[in-house]
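Forwarding these from the shared drive since the link keeps breaking.
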Amino acid sequence: MTSEAPPAGDRSEASPRPPRRSFARNTAIFSILTGLSRVAGLMREVLASAFFGLTPAFSAFTFAFALPNVVRSLFADSALSAAFVPIFTELQEEGKKREAFRLASTLLMVILIVLSVITILFILTAGWLVPAIAPGKFSAHADQLAVGFSRVLFPIVLILGLNGLVVGILQAYDHFTIPALSALVWNIVIMVFMVGARPLFHGDEQLYAYAIGILVGTAVQFAMALPVLKTVGFHFEWSFDWRDPRVKRVFVLMLPVTLGLGLINFNALANYYLAGFVSEEGPRAIEAAFRVYMLPQGMFSVAIATVLFPQLSRLAARRDLTGLRATIGNGLRLIFLMLLPAAAATAVLATPMIRLVYQRGEFTAADTTLVATALFWFSFSLPFSGVNLLLTRSFFSLQKPWAVTYLSVANLVVNIGVSIALLPLGIGGVVAGTAIADLALAAAQYFYLKRELDNQLELRDTMEAVMGMLIAAVWFGIGAWVGWAGLDWIFGRSLIGQVISVGGGLTIGTAIYAYVVLAMRLPEAEQLRRLVAGRLGRA
């Protein structure tokens, strides 16, 4: 796909928009920066696990961090961006640039007022609210810690709400570099605080250094995005026009988006809650596995879905159903192309990966077994979770978010129901519920969206491509495991030996996968090969 020119007859009120970068370029930049941020996130988790292990205090911290994340998903960045970008893009497509600026300015004031009130109320009531959410899950000491951690962390809801609006504006201008780079900086700031501020606290309270680092890192993340607004040609109109009908449209769209995204994030909270029935270490084990799982998710599916969202919104504003179908179909096949081998890798090398990433300091071999079990079952969710990201944004671009809400309710019910049914299987049963629910949600969203697009969504092309990719992923898994096993036998399990064996296994698996998909002449594989060849040729 190439960059899009403005439609003929575009009524621009001011200077022309900056030229749009191509999908391939944006995706490559976003993927690389997001990959670096995920690696930094893993380094953060390695550091935290070495300092704190899988202690009950760390599980309390994980639960406390999940609370603002759920509220953030309900009222802040993700929901706001998903509702705001299609309307802002529509105004830009119609040439109503000044009105788009005024809309953003009004929303900024609303976010500032509403989220400030919510943050203050939570901080004041956290003492009874946090223990009430998870009664009996933690000891009295861990409950007290969770309350304190949540009070330090909750202001990120306000900061991320403001940041979500700014990032939404940048995405509408096809600018993704700073938002992706700021996530890398966020992780670095947290690690600096964990190392530098931890000696200021004692015992379990050393986790406050982690919480403070998250708060400061989030503020730095927001500060990085602000100067870029001027670069893309945007400036705030300092007005508060709450009677603007488009403000109402944003919030009308935001309600189902909020419910849909919030319900998806409630799945994570439900997993932490149910994992508490397995052991006190269960919530932290799921979180540690999730961090490894999110590395390929962020590099590939999040990158593709994020970069395509403004393009989908422009196509939807023009009612270009043919373009929508082609863009969504290509995006889905690219996600499967990248995430099926990633799923094979995390399935067959779950234990070696977790051992390499986490097993040091307070993190024991028993902890490795628990986290690796969670990662193994997360593997089956990986491609379907990526598909859901793109399909959800497709509904948002069409300004039909209620479909996502209804399906997310069903997803939450399936997730909790299956997880409870499989709870006797331990931590693997909890995560398997998520995998089954993600598969069901992907299928439901696909066929619902197909109906919205005149019952055409390149199903045959997608299924044929996915079957070929699945065969190649099986060969990836075989090659990766055999390669790891041989190198592990030769080099042993020192840190260097583990890096060689895990890295070598992944390299062998990747080479086999690339050979198979290119030998099958899959169009998406050729598309990716041309992109890589082009980048190397210009290097």
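-- next protein --
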Amino acid sequence: MTASAQTAPGTAADDGATPTEVYSPEYFEQFSPQTASDMVAQIPGFEIRGSSDGERGFGQASLNILINGRRPSSKSSGANEILSRIPASNVERIEIVKGESLDIPGLSGQVANIIAKSGELSGSWNAAARFEEGSQPQLGDIGLNFSAKRGNIQAVGSVGHSQFIFSENGNEQFFDGEGLQTQDRTERLSFDTQNPFANLNLTLNRDNGHIANLNLSARKQNRNTLVQEQFVNLINPAGTGASVAAVTQDQINYEIGGDYDLGLDLLGNSGRLKLIALHRSEDADFISSFLFDDTAPGQALQLFDQNNVSKEYIGRGEYTWKSSQGHDWAFSVEGAINTFDSVSDFSLNDALLVEDDVRVEEDRFQTNLSRSWAVNPRTTLQTSLGAEYSVIDVVSEDGDSGKFFRPKGFITASHKLDSAWTLRGQVERSVSQLDFGDFISTVSLAEETETQGGNVKPEQKWEFEAELIKQAPKGLSGRFKLFYDIVEDPIEQVLFEGGAQGPSNLDSNGAVYGAEANLTWVLDDAVKGLRLTGEFFLSESEIDDPITGTSRNISNWPLWEYDLGFRYDIPDSPFAIEGEVEQSDSAKSFRIDETVENNFLDPEVELAFIHKDLFGMQFTVRVQNIADFRLQRERLRFTPTRTGTQFERQITERQRGQRISFELTDTF
């Protein structure tokens, strides 16, 4: 969604917010960007964060990008998708602004404000082909983005098809509780997902300064996973055979939303009222089958079939104004109605064993009052006080509705140390959203696990963070953040009465703490065209294990990650080289009777060679998985719980093939 910089209210200049840096199109010329997404990716030390996609309701802003000073009002589109619809030729400048200095509640830290115009018709297209050893060619990646303007009406949209295919081969070994190997398996995994999509945003800039937006989007996803195994039973030869596990998911999503923004001086100066309405739907069919065939007892076919339909309706009003003291105020009221229907059945050899029908309804209401002001020329503050009230009812089960009232809010302070360095701190009381999937029962046929739906309440957190930011077009830029969170009512797998297991809230609090950094080093003064990047994450978490009573990490919590990269635009030539090395690790995942630990034994390494002007187009050759990325998985199983006897150990090691891709992009 784009708008003329001359007519768009709420730009940094209109709000009195002084950008820390302004990047003109000339700064990005050496990269030959095709879209605004390509330009933002090259801003030193800047990282896109936050998204409302996947969360119910619209809520306060978290995505740190603005288009002509306005917050994108679509939920289904991610930041890069939104920015990819804006041709680079339409971008007049990109301003990096302190979120605390804007009248948009929820935004803090670095915010990229893309000031863009629209011509009669412009856009970009891309097409890619990828080839991986052991997999089918990936030929279905293609996309078209366009932007057009006629009179006061602007249209921005995209249509395309994305595809992702890969395969992994590996070995799996099974051991009994005494360490004796019982089975030896070879396996092959193949994965294929297809995603056709279309998006359209229409903007009407009226002569009286009112702005109307209409957002339409639709996406279909078809995902297929197949795991084929050959196994040898080393204890009982009659148990030797093969198995095939197949998972298919067909999903259709659509979203219809709109907003109307108008000037309305009720409480102060520069008042604006924004009314937002949105509806979205997701319909997913999930089919999982497991065919097991050995000599004794023979062939068995298990089938798990589930259909999940979720719908959301949102109405929201936002009013912003400036007081006579120059403070920015914002008040918002939002209501959301959500429904979730799940129908599933489990059968063995065509004999129906279990049926489950779950309907969950949620009504949510939230309100916030926010205030932003400059304490002095170097220091800005933003406070937000609000509350959320929700009623969650599992209609398919007897029992009272869950009613929750949760206060929430934050205070953020930003202090500019000098022209480049900024220190920021924030304390927030947040309320998490429940995953509707926690209310339904699921079955993993290949893993031989069942999870019963639970009755849970939302987690709450006290979040503390301190961040040091440096923003400069050359030299070292980036941010370094320390954080500490207190988690109330953490959700983990517990043992229910009757022996089943599923998600439930723990009585004791949890904690999350760590550090993260995002750095860019522009080395133009030493080697023109060279820049280095690095992202780092280090974290720990603590909860009391509901089975053992001892302290451990939150299940599957990310522990550390690094991502190192470089780009060299060869001076006086159309060529560039990019490289990236990344690796991560997570804590074990825990059930009441097992643990699973995944280890990435080698980093993922890739190189890209770019021709920025091949017959007017940009051509990229990318080689991935140069270091032969491998995954090792250890699964320990116990009876009756993890405090009991270990009866099985599984060791799996998989390796993915090397990949080469070719991509063409161009603008019009």
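The chain has a mean pLDDT of 89. The CA atoms of residues 484 and 513 lie 4 Å apart.

- D.
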